Each structure stands twice: as structure tokens, then as C-alpha cells.
Amino acid sequence: MDSKKRKNNVMSNGRKRANKGGRPVKGVTEKLKYRITIKMATEDYYLLKSKAKSAGVSASEFIRGCITQSGVKERLSKEHGDLIRKLCGMANNLNQLARKANAEGYVSVFLPCRTLMIEIDNLVNRIRL
């Protein structure tokens, strides 16, 4: 029997051989075929090792779990940074309106406060997107 026929579990008479047991063959998506090397500081390396040991898995399995279950949040874009700065400025304006309302009365700041509230709401909705 040649190696091709053995690999395909086919006997010389064309019939399929009985399952000999063993581990099932992994699918294409389950195979671990990519390798990534990283450089770490000593402190980071031992922190990874200790976290993996306390989780009861290898360091590689721990990192794969970190990738699939959590992740690093992306940095804020320039646009989001600008929007957040505008929001901080509006919060400052709102604080000034609150001080003015305490000094002069709430009726005097009702309209500016209402327009500022609408602007803040629009800005927060833009940040969410």
C-alpha cells in the first residue's frame, strides 16, 4: 500500500479503512500557522508569565485570549480630540452660566443655557459616531 492511499484511508481494493483512532484532523481555520515575535522588557515578560501561570495556560494561549476577548483601544483621532476640546469649552461656558444664574437669577440665563444644552447634545452625538 503506498503512502497516498494510506493518507486517504483507502485500501487497495477501494474500500475505506476502519478508523484507527487518534486525534481528529484540525480544520484550516484551527491550525496555528502564523508566528509573531515581539520584544519585551524584563518586567513585561515576567508579568506575562505570571498572568499566564495564574490563568493556567501558556503564554501564547494567554496572548491569543487577550486578542480575541479584549484588545487595545485605538487612539483618538484628531477630529475626536478637537470635538472633546470643544466639549470642554462648552462645559466651562455652562459653569459660567451657572455662576451667573446663582448671582442674577435663573430667568436671566434660561435662553443661553438652553442653546448651550442643544449644542452640547449635538456635539456628544457627533463624538459617539
Automatic annotation (TrEMBL):
Residues 1-20 have a biased composition (Basic residues). It comes from the Bacteria. It holds the Pfam family NikA-like. Residues 1-26 are annotated as: Disordered. InterPro entries: NikA-like. This is Plasmid mobilization relaxosome protein MobC. It comes from Bacteroides clarus. The lineage of its organism: Bacteria, Pseudomonadati, Bacteroidota, Bacteroidia, Bacteroidales.
